[in-house]
Amino acid sequence: VQLVESGGGLAQSGRSLRLSCAASGFTFSSYAMSWVRQATGKEVEWVAGISRGGETTYYADSVKGRFTISRDNARNTLYLQLNALRTEDTAMYYCARVVDDYRGQGTQVTVS
């Protein structure tokens, strides 16, 4: 099982980033997925979730209206579109399987 996040980086406040999570080693379409983040010195924060088929999405209040979670089951890839970034969005972002919270290594997002 492997989850590999990418797409993070440095962005100015108000700009956008798109994170990707490439899944392998399991049947991606059978798992609800989520994005979580952890800022330095803080606890892990759940950000967004998506159902197995992608029909249903959920968001934390802190990102609702700014972030969009999506998935492409044909490509075994999970996405997180980050718009209107704020300095408080700075964190390591991880994709995770909902059922067991298995996570990738993360991708750093820094907003200045």
Q: What does it look like?
A:
This protein has 112 residues and is mostly beta strands. It is 0% helix and 49% strand. It is built from no helices and ten strands. The strands form two sheets. It has a six-stranded mixed β-sheet with strand order 2-10-9-4-5-6, with no helix packed on it. A hairpin with a 6-residue loop joins strand 5 and strand 6 (57-59). The protein is globular, with a radius of gyration of 13 Å. The protein starts with a strand and ends with a strand. The mean pLDDT is 97.
Structural class: mainly beta
Number of helices: 0
Terminal residue distance:
34 Å
Average pLDDT, rounded to a whole number, is 97
Percent strand:
over 45%
Element order: H for helix, E for strand: EEEEEEEEEE
Contiguous low-pLDDT stretches (5 residues minimum) are none
Give me the count of strands: 10
Give the overall form.
globular
Largest sheet entry: 6 strands, mixed
Order of strands across the widest beta sheet?
2-10-9-4-5-6
Helicity, as a percent range? under 10%
Rounded Rg = 13 Å
- Oligomeric state of the chains? single chain
Write the layout of secondary structure elements.
Blueprint: E1 2-6, E2 9-11, E3 17-24, E4 33-38, E5 45-50, E6 57-59, E7 67-72, E8 77-82, E9 91-97, E10 107-111
Parallel strand pairs: 2-10
Antiparallel strand pairs: 1-3, 3-8, 4-5, 4-9, 5-6, 7-8, 9-10
